[in-house]
Amino acid sequence: MTAVIADPFSRFIKQCVFLGSLLASFLAFADTDVALAEEEANRLLARMSEAFSRLDYDGTFVYSHGNSMETMRIIHRVDEGVEKERIVRMDGSRHELIRDGEQVTCVHAAGWKGNLNHRIPAGPFAKAFIRDVSNLTDKYQLTDGRKGRVVGRDAISFAIKPKDEYRYGYRIWLDQETGLLLKSVLLHGGRVLERFQFTQVNLSTPIPDSELALGLTGEVIKHNPLTLTAQETIEQKKPNWKLTWLPDGFIMRVQGIRRTYGGKMQADTLTFSDGMTAFSIFIEKASDEAHQEMATQMGATVAVARIVKNKSGNYFATVVGEVPMQTAKRLADSIVPVSAEP
What we know:
The protein has about 350 residues and is mostly beta strands. The chain contains 4 helices and 20 strands. It starts with about 25 loop residues before the first helix and ends in a 5-residue tail after the last strand.
């Protein structure tokens, strides 16, 4: 499996991406930050997590990562507990994403040449698939609660500071009334890696069915990033590979085998999360022509690939996720066969 950083649109749908700020100097974590009480910290995190999936909202946001900046519109409605959502790319090539419960469809204008093979991409509106904030304060410290305003709404702002060097830090702004994430920044080593901010949001006007319907007309390309195609199957089983090192707080969320039609290719897949962020590991039989060791980064997303070995030969292992580069490299270097001793 060749490591590919998902295209910018796809990263909005997978796992809270925390982004944007006005002045980076105001966002740096200072030694004088005052920690929020654990009860209050957990309450704020729970409100944020619930707001994504339980509220009806229609808004436009700006997202930047690496050297890219994009504008998106999101329409979200809950019908009897079932989430329905439409995300529209407002600049560049025309992309839309339609979600109805667990069914997700990506739609591209005809002629699009991007990668159709992405699964659960990252971003502020996909973290519901993996987020578990119940024990987040074990790995992060919430500090420096402040009141402010974002997009004309009263907000509460606080820093989420990691307790080790193996994960990123954040500063986020939540709507004071509802808990919805209005603005965020992802930080590492004093640098802003990703930014997100609503520029307009409506939380009161009823959302009609027409706003959730596909807006692209004419010939389009559709695919389902969260489901398998008819040519693929997943076999859940114990993994053939393991990690001899894992940062505290990360636990395995997904494991299995993904096969192409006829079993010609297979890849072990492992996904780990600490409740705030996640990374995945893909391991397949190595091909000398197609696979080379590498390390690359776009914004907060990194990909590190290594050749690993077991008794049957060489395999190609790729770590992809929103973790610091040194974390991804250490993870990649710790992949061994299950039969091997740590």
